[in-house]
Design brief:
There is one protein chain. This protein has 2 domains: 203 residues, Alpha-Beta Barrel (TIM Barrel), CATH 3.20.20; 98 residues, Lyase, Ornithine Decarboxylase, Chain A, domain 1 (Beta Barrel), CATH 2.40.37.10. It is an alpha/beta fold and 352 residues long. α5 links the parallel β4 and β5. The mean pLDDT is 98. Helix content is 28%, strand content 25%. The strands form 3 sheets. Strands 1, 10, 11, 14, 15, 16, 17, 18, 19 and 20 form a 10-stranded mixed sheet that branches. It is elongated and about 75 Å long.
Length: 352
């Protein structure tokens, strides 16, 4: 029995990609596998995504591209992030396409590299805000121009007005360059705004079965691919006034049974979940009590102690109960992306 384990259902990733590809059609699906596949494992996720119909893969960095190629992943690959000269050399060695928004950068590229020119329509990060400058970059790229792109800032927000404005800005610009494939939609835009799909969509969070709108992935027929599990390593009877954890942030008010689960913030269980989360222990929902430490957490089992070795589920479903990454994100005031990306490297991944 492992103290902590992230189980990843590659079949779920494949099915999620097939669903997203069908929703986006005739636009192609680009599966985003950056940040180690959002914590799921970039290489296995990439293979599952391709099996599910992803025509392209995308990463943020050159080293991420190199990892995929070293593992034998073939097919169209896009490095979406900024590239320093040493990083550009690595990206070019992988045969990946790159993103550009400056003429000087395009001038430094070899003839065989594909260039995706980025217009900043409102994200305010990479890309140029000036459509004229973006068009000059397209012209400078010449035959190397492989795509036109932008990125949405508010596709996951309830107010669609700014998304619609970004779509209009992008449409006006790409009309200057007919024949070049255009792509803009992230997972949220793919699911909620058909006008944003263009020739290709770039889905990340949704391929892993999480809701880009931060509610419930089942609303879109998506299957969560990752579950995070541990086990109950110790069980002890606790009397009123006795405490658990650093700082005595849990003090028993009644006689109860406490279980110690050997997982903590060293594994990605955020300290902000102190006295602020639930686990499924033996299929039963129980509260996390006391301070989340680096290697251990404590749960209140109430009047029903369990055997040592009983499974404890932090993300996943058992016995009709489920805990989603979205649930943990809501308790922490963050997003589901951060929950799975935060599962650390010391947690083994098991693939099925």
């Amino acid at each position: 029995m492992l103290r902590a384990l992230a189980r990843v259902d590659l079949g779920a990733i494949e099915r999620n990609c097939a669903r997203l590809a069908a929703i986006a059609a005739p636009a192609r699906l680009c599966a985003v596998v950056k940040a180690d596949g959002y914590g799921h494992g970039a290489v296995p996720a990439a293979r599952a995504a391709q099996a599910g119909g992803a025509a392209w893969l995308a990463v943020a960095t050159a080293t991420e591209a190199a990892e995929l190629r070293a593992a034998g992943i073939v097919g169209p690959l896009l490095v979406m992030g900024a590239l320093s000269p040493p990083e550009l050399d690595v990206a070019l060695e992988t045969g990946a396409d790159v993103v550009a928004w400056r003429e000087a950068f395009v001038a430094s590229l070899p003839d065989e590299v594909g260039v995706h020119v980025k217009l900043d329509t409102g994200m305010g990060r990479l890309g140029t805000r000036d459509p004229d400058e973006a068009s000059r970059v397209v012209e400078a790229a010449g035959a190397r121009a492989a795509g036109l792109m932008t990125h949405f800032a508010t596709a996951d927000e309830d107010d669609p007005a700014f998304l619609a404005e970004q779509v209009r800005r992008f449409e006006r610009w790409i009309a200057r360059h007919p024949g070049l494939p255009a792509h803009a939609a992230n997972s949220a835009a793919t699911l909620r705004e058909p006008a944003a799909r263009f020739d290709m969509v770039r889905c990340g969070i949704a391929i892993y079965g999480m809701d880009p709108l931060h509610r419930d992935p089942a609303d879109y027929g998506l299957e969560p691919a990752l579950e995070l599990v541990s086990y109950v390593a110790e069980v002890k009877r606790t009397l009123p006034g006795q405490s658990a954890g650093y700082g005595r942030r849990f003090v028993a008010e009644r006689e109860t049974w406490l279980g110690t689960v050997p997982i903590g913030y060293g594994d990605g269980v955020r300290r902000g979940l102190t006295n602020n989360a639930e686990l499924l222990v033996g299929g039963r929902r129980v509260p996390l009590v006391g301070t989340v430490s680096m290697d251990n957490i404590t749960v209140d089992l109430g009047d029903e102690p369990v055997e040592r070795g009983t499974e404890a589920v932090l993300i996943g479903a058992r016995g009709g109960e489920r805990i989603l990454a979205e649930d943990l994100a809501a308790r922490l005031g963050t997003i589901n992306y951060e929950i799975t990306c935060g599962v650390t490297a010391r947690v083994p991944r098991e693939y099925a």
